[in-house]
Amino acid sequence: MIVTTTNKVQDKEILEYKGIVFGEVITGINILKDIGAGIRNFFGGRSGGYEKELLAARTEALKEMEERAKDMGANAIVGVKMDYEVLGADNGMLMVTCSGTAVVI
């Protein structure tokens, strides 16, 4: 499955538009990662725990979107966009969403 942020795939013709597909992941950030991030925020540096959580959520959202496109009979997704939100009363949840257009090339 080709997944791209562009509106077309180089050297390929879009034969059919199947529709818009989405992938969504909402994940909790645990207290240990919050403590580690707070320390790094105070002293400076990168938060490896948060970065790993974000990477995993993004990967899962893309995988979910690909599966939905496959179920529609598509073999590519064009125009992909990603969005990130922090949710929950204590901002303890991370939401990653992606969307694109499922197509046949």
TrEMBL record:
InterPro entries in the cross-refs: UPF0145_dom_sf, UPF0145_YbjQ-like
Pfam assignment, any one: YbjQ_1
SUPFAM superfamilies registered for this protein in UniProt: YbjQ-like
NCBIfam families named in the record: PRK01119.1
Record HAMAP family: UPF0145
Family the entry assigns: Belongs to the UPF0145 family.
Protein name: UPF0145 protein AB8B22_09685
Organism (species): Leptotrichia rugosa
